[in-house]
Design brief:
Length: 211
């Protein structure tokens, strides 16, 4: 492995750094984007029970806000529920925007890595071929080992760049899809709470089939 990195030239260093960064981001996002941590099951039902029992005081709201991203959104809405439906929805949307921003953390970096590493590989290809043609101009085509070294450098960097870019792109798309699904779930939970508080006071989800 070390010989391959050395043979690829100095451009292998940024490609390797990109691969380490991409791996770290993927591991961190896999651990962070856990739907059960972001939107804990039965949290809405527990909140509704606390509301019916008049237990939703300031300390409970603070605990709810710190418990999870969904808890933070629900707490923002409940804090302004007495001001009307539209104000409550605006508070929820503002809190949700912050949650979505946190969910998308590092994804731009991962997408940039997926876009840049093939270009680094291509640059390595160009540098390697320049070396080949420089040697041809200086010594002719008689020194096969030098020519082979330049071609090898060109091929190694291209392969390395693609090897990093392809998994990074796949994981970027995967995380975007997972975030979209999580956001839809958050929206459904918050809409249930808003409708329950500002319609007939029915328990959230009680009228939904399959819930």
């Amino acid at each position: 492995m070390l010989e391959m990195v050395t043979a690829g030239g100095w451009l292998m260093l940024p490609i390797l750094l990109c691969s380490i960064a991409a791996l770290g981001i993927c591991i961190e996002r896999l651990l962070t984007l856990n739907p059960d941590k972001i939107s804990p099951p039965h949290l809405l039902a527990r909140v509704w029970t606390q509301l019916k029992n008049n237990e939703m005081d300031s300390p409970t709201l603070r605990t709810l806000r710190a418990s999870s991203p969904l808890g933070a959104i629900l707490a923002a809405g409940l804090s302004n529920a007495h001001l009307g439906r539209e104000v409550m929805k605006s508070s929820i949307e503002e809190a949700a925007s912050h949650v979505v921003h946190e969910l998308e953390r590092y994804l731009n970096t991962l997408g940039t890595i997926a876009a840049v590493t093939p270009l680094l590989g291509l640059l390595g290809t160009v540098v390697g071929m320049i070396k080949v043609f420089t040697e041809i101009m200086a010594e002719g085509t008689g020194n096969a080992s030098v020519l082979a070294g330049g071609i090898s450098e060109a091929l190694i960097t291209t392969a390395a760049g693609l090897s990093v870019a392809i998994p990074a792109l796949i994981m970027h798309r995967y995380f975007v899809g997972r975030i979209d699904a999580i956001v839809v779930g958050l929206e459904q939970e918050t809409i249930k709470l808003v409708d329950a508080l500002h319609t007939d006071g029915q328990e959230p989800g009680a009228g939904d089939s399959g819930v």
